[in-house]
């Protein structure tokens, strides 16, 4: 029996409401490295809202299929990683690694069930290429691009590469553009100097969300 889209969207919202407070707690504890830290109500509200938007977007984009699990997990990880990176300039492996593993397995199941092998193999190759390019950037500019960013690029390569090389390149470009615009705004408002470290994680994640939101995708 086919599940209607309103039911799927309602389920996505319910999952977001249930997951939001937990993700907020994970984020604040990773940020502070305090296992007893408790998030504020404002943080819980913002993170729950973001998760809701991303999960609904994932359902709208792919419907109900194994790949939706990959997008949903990546969405939750993105919210946590973005929050931690903004606060402490770190992208914890304990979030990135599980997200990459779950996304890879979900996309593999999608390929086995729906025959999307080309998309799956492209996603794997894109992950390797993205990681390699990021590692090169980290070696050339270790102060500006950390290995947390490199691992995040690998994850984004897997997810965006599944949709297509053009989607991946557009997403990375939008991420870099977002970072540049934010940096200029901070400089213009004197909230940062030329030597101020700007976290790359949130702009890269924003670029990924933008490219999928703008519809620059075609399902494999």
UniProtKB/TrEMBL annotation:
The chain crosses the membrane at residues 42-62, 69-89, 95-117, 124-142, 162-188, 200-219. Residues 77-183 form the Prepilin type IV endopeptidase peptidase domain. The keyword Cell membrane does not apply. GO terms for molecular function: aspartic-type endopeptidase activity; methyltransferase activity. It holds the Pfam family Peptidase_A24. Keywords: Membrane, Methyltransferase, Transferase, Transmembrane, Transmembrane helix. One of its GO terms (cellular component) is plasma membrane. InterPro entries: Peptidase_A24A_bac (IPR014032), Prepilin_IV_endopep_pep (IPR000045), Prepilin_peptidase/N-MTase (IPR050882). GO terms for biological process: methylation; signal peptide processing. The keyword Transmembrane helix applies. It comes from the Bacteria. Belongs to the peptidase A24 family. This is Leader peptidase (Prepilin peptidase)/N-methyltransferase.
């Amino acid at each position: 029996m086919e599940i209607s889209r309103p039911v799927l969207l309602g389920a996505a919202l319910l999952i977001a409401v249930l997951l939001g407070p937990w993700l907020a707690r994970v984020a604040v504890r990773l940020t502070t490295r305090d296992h007893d830290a408790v998030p504020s109500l404002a943080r819980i509200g913002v993170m729950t809202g973001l998760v809701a938007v991303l999960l609904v977007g994932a359902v709208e984009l792919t419907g109900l299929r194994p790949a939706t699990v990959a997008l949903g997990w990546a969405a939750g990880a993105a919210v946590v990683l973005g929050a931690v990176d903004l606060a402490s300039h770190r992208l914890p492996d304990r979030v990135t690694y599980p997200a990459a593993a779950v996304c890879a397995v979900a996309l593999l199941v999608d390929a086995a069930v729906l025959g999307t092998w080309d998309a799956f193999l492209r996603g794997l190759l894109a992950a390797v290429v993205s990681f390699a390019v990021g590692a090169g950037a980290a070696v050339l500019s270790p102060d500006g691009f950390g290995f947390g960013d490199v691992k995040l690029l690998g994850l984004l390569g897997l997810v965006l590469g599944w949709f297509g090389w053009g989607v991946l390149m557009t997403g990375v470009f939008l991420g870099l553009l977002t970072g540049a615009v934010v940096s200029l705004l901070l400089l213009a408002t004197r909230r940062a100097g030329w030597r101020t470290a700007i976290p790359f994680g949130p702009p890269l994640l924003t670029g990924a969300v933008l490219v999928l939101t703008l519809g620059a995708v075609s399902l494999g």
